[in-house]
Specification:
mainly alpha, 2 domains, 9 helices
């Protein structure tokens, strides 16, 4: 029975991932997520049912529009595949429980924010405002830690990045602060600090490699949201084990 649930959850993630692509790419551009229907961004041709199969349509078409042969963004299949795999990860971690809803909502927010930040270097307020009451309500109904831990996670997440913005004169964006404040409420303290630490390490390492390779120029801005999301997911799934393991090593 569990294998069928796992397959269903993965397929659900793939389908929702296709919709999350639409949200992530249209909302920051001020476009409706309902109208017009999905279309090629180059020639404007409306996509048919065969063009809307998550991941597989991209692979079967060779990553190009069937009408004008324009190259399609790899963000589409990557967003769909990531959502499907992350939905499966949440199910394997939580099973069928209240925490599953928290995890799926967190993953949904993370996928949308990552695609949006990679494309536009923006974390849309509309997306955060949509997920904020949902995640707050879910965390109140299904607390993982004490209420104080979740509240302190929100304060620490938003406060630390806000402090960095003030000190650095804009080294990060307010979208990052709002994102970590909201997700800090979900994962609690000290997981929020772990998430920020992981994000900073990954962002620094990847940014350094890209500069050495000549792909990224010094002082060229890069989106920090995706690294925050990776840190948040790692802390959400394995924060307690990582922190306990760290203290056991130094204890």
């Amino acid at each position: 029975m569990s294998i069928f649930i796992a397959i269903y959850v993965t397929l659900l993630g793939l389908m929702l991932g296709s919709f999350y692509n639409v949200v992530a790419l249209r909302v920051p551009a001020g476009e409706s997520i309902i109208h017009p229907p999905s279309r090629c961004s180059s020639c404007g041709t409306r996509l048919r049912a065969r063009d809307l199969i998550p991941v597989f349509s991209y692979l079967f078409s060779g990553g190009r529009c069937r009408n004008c042969s324009a190259k399609l963004s790899a963000l589409y299949p990557l967003g769909e595949a990531a959502t499907g795999l992350l939905f499966l990860w949440v199910y394997l971690r939580t099973g069928l429980a209240g925490e599953s809803l928290v995890g799926l909502a967190l993953v949904s927010l993370g996928v949308i924010v990552t695609i949006s930040d990679l494309k536009y270097m923006r974390i849309p307020n509309k997306v955060l405002l949509f997920f904020a009451p949902l995640l707050i309500l879910l965390r109140i109904l299904v607390p993982e830690y004490s209420l104080w831990s979740h509240m302190l996670g929100a304060l620490a997440g938003g406060g630390i990045i806000l402090l960095i913005i003030v000190i650095s004169g804009g080294g990060m964006g307010m979208g990052d602060a709002k994102l970590l404040a909201l997700c800090g409420l979900v994962i609690g303290l000290p997981n929020t600090l772990l998430a920020l630490f992981i994000a900073c390490v990954l962002g620094t390492l990847v940014g350094g490699v890209l500069m050495l390779a000549g792909i990224l120029q010094r002082r060229q801005p890069i989106p920090f949201g995706p690294w925050l999301i990776i840190g948040i997911f790692v802390a959400y799934g394995y924060g307690s084990q990582i922190i306990s393991g760290y203290f056991s090593l130094i204890g």
